[in-house]
Structures are given as structure tokens and as C-alpha cells.
Amino acid sequence: MAESLPTRPPRVGLFATCLVDLFRPAVGFAAAKLLEDAGCEVVVPPQTCCGQPAYNSGDRQTSRALALQMMDAFSGCDYIVVPSGSCGGMISRHYPELFEDEPQLARRARDFAGKTYELVSFLTDVRGVTTVDAAYEGPVTYHDSCSGLRELGIHDQPRKLLASVRGLELVEMDEADVCCGFGGTFAVKYGEISDAIVSKKAAHVTASGAPLLLAGDLGCLMNMAGKLSRAGSAIQVRHVAEVLAGLTDEPPIGAAREVKS
């Protein structure tokens, strides 16, 4: 009887995102560690923006060009994984819309979208990860980012993995699933409305009593960190991947050397 050949690990292309690359590379390293711990071969192809800012601003020509660039860059991957619900939602939900009038490109975009996942969703829903080897002493609270929650259905997945972190206590804030006011270009176009929304979010974060705020989208985290910092709060802010990977040596998001107000 012939011996069966070993199954190769899935080849996962890590899409780091613009914000991670420019403001918080530690999130990319944490994501890579979590994927490798889950038995994946991790590759990081040359990459640029996913096209979401252009898409949200109505610039379909630029977003199409960036989508094609993305699909070429990650063409040799079994999966594309991104530590961001908003970028993940852009690829998995909106790439097919960009090419709906071109059957061949539309099929390619649908195939690409079908193998693209947000990081924590991929770990739990695809790789079946139920626990992580990490420790964090103390309470944390968690913000559900809009795109991850509403476009990709990410809610229970991060909470399941956080429950396995030794010493960590998850304290749910009020209205955890309500927008933080970032919304990408929304925060630029409608600054006063954005500030009102994030002010309410910051109040809920503070009322939770947790000294650490987590989320899965760096744009939301930077927005909330900025508001908390300007209010003189000592609450720290981190991407959930950093805690799940046990990589919390970096200063928290919002440290002066990382984000300038």
C-alpha cells in the first residue's frame, strides 16, 4: 500500500495594509506569528493599498487599478489574510463589484475575494484555532469595528481567542458594536460629526474600567487612541493580534513617537 504524501501547509499571503506598514508594523509581525503558529506558510508579497479610500471616494478607475495590482501580487497564494476588517471587507465584498461588467475579470475577482479573510476570522473559521499561547494580566475591553462586524460577521471570533489568553479578563463596554467615528475619509470630510461619535465611544471605553482597549482595525484604534490621549486618559490601545500573539513589548498605539495629533 502506497504511503500518502504529507499535505503541505497552506500558503498564506499576508496583506499588511497601509496603516500597519506606515504606523504599526508590530501588528504585521503579530499577524505573521499567529499564522505560523496555526501551521501556515506565510509570504508577504510586494503590496500597496487595497483601493478602499479611492473606492469610498467614488474613484472607480483608481480602485480597479489597485485591485488588479493586488490580485497579481497575491496570485500564488492559497489564502489572503489581512489584520483589518475594513480592508478585508473591501476585497471580499467590493472587488467583484468593480469588474461586474467584465465576465473574465469578474470571475477572477470573485475567486480572489473568496479566499480573502480577516486575520482572526481566518484563524478560527478556517484553521480551527481555539486557543493561543499567550498571557496578559488584567482586564481589557473590545471594540467591534464596523466593517469587520457588519460586512464580515466578526464578533465571537476574537472573544473566543481572547478567552484563552492566560490572565486576561474581557470586560464588555456599552455599545461595543457602535461606530467609533473614523470611517476612513468620513473623519476627514465630517470632522465635527466624527469627533462627536468618538467622544461617546471614548466615554464608553472609560466607563468599562479596563486599562486596555483592543480592536481588529488599526484605523479605528488610532482614532480612539487619539481621542483618549487628547482627553488625558491613561487607557492603552492595541490591536487584538498583538495580545493574541503575546507581542506587547511595543509602546501602545497613540504613543508620541507613533501618532502625531
Task: Give the topology.
Layout: E1 11-14, H1 18-23, H2 25-37, E2 41-43, H3 52-56, H4 60-73, E3 79-82, H5 85-98, H6 103-114, E4 116-118, H7 119-126, E5 135-142, H8 146-151, H9 156-162, E6 166-170, H10 185-189, H11 191-208, E7 212-215, H12 218-230, E8 236-239, H13 240-244
Parallel strand pairs: 1-2, 1-3, 3-4, 5-6, 5-7, 7-8
Give your account of this protein's structure.
By secondary structure, this protein is an alpha/beta fold. The chain folds into 2 domains: 11-124, Rossmann fold (3-Layer(aba) Sandwich), CATH 3.40.50; 129-244, 3-Layer(aba) Sandwich (Rossmann fold), CATH 3.40.50.11810. The chain is built from 13 helices and 8 strands. The strands form 2 sheets. A 4-stranded parallel β-sheet has the order 2-1-3-4, sandwiched between helices. It has a 4-stranded parallel β-sheet with strand order 6-5-7-8. Strand 7 (212-215), helix 12 and strand 8 (236-239) form a beta-alpha-beta unit. Helix 5 packs antiparallel against helix 6 (103-114) and helix 11 crosses helix 12. The protein is globular and about 50 Å long.
